[in-house]
Amino acid sequence: MPKLIKNGRVIDDAAQFLVLDEGQGPEALTLPDGPLFVPLAVWQAHRGALSGRAGLGVWLDSNENVEELDGNLDSISAIALNFPKFTDGRAYSAAALLRSRYGFKGEIRAIGEVLRDQFFFMQRCGFDAIQPKAGKYSDTQLEEALTSLKDFSTPYQAAIDQPEPLFRRVPRAA
User: Fold this and answer.
1) Most buried of 60, 62, 74, 102, CB within 10 angstroms?
2) Which CATH number fits the domain 3-169, given the four candidates 1.10.3210, 1.10.287, 3.30.530, 3.20.20?
3) Domain segments of the chain: what residues?
4) β-strand 16-17 against 36-39: which pairing, if any?
5) pLDDT tens, position by position, for the chain (174 residues)?
6) Residue 162: CB partners within 8 Å, gap ≥ 6?
């Protein structure tokens, strides 16, 4: 069972990720039972049948826009944003938009090529779950990676997890 870091803990995750094969259309799919993340194209093709399904998540690749989900976020419990390579940071912006502009309160999960060095910054942008590729880290390494969520005691800049910058949070004498 895959492991992920969620809300500062390493947990087992039973969710399946549905991936379309090349040339496979999203309309003719049979969806498995249980917790499931579907690609944006599948969600768009089956929106009516999937709305309100327990344990449903939608995953977006880095070239897909979160605006495609606007107006339907109430029926989605989780959104996974893919990092196809560690140098592609578009998912950071997508997570921040989901939290700030669209007010999404559900789970935002980082998937794909996520590295321990990025975990703290992902959390600052609005991710509350981080799922590295299977086999990337051992269980022990994931447990040790929890410390990277506390790399900085007090961030200076404003972000999703702390909307006020440090200079506004700390009282100063006149």
Assistant:
1) 60
2) 3.20.20
3) 3-169
4) parallel
5) 788 999 889 999 989 898 877 777 777 677 777 888 999 988 888 887 777 777 889 999 999 999 989 888 888 899 999 999 988 999 999 999 999 999 999 999 999 999 988 898 999 999 999 999 888 888 889 988 888 787 787 877 878 888 888 888 888 777
6) 124, 155, 169
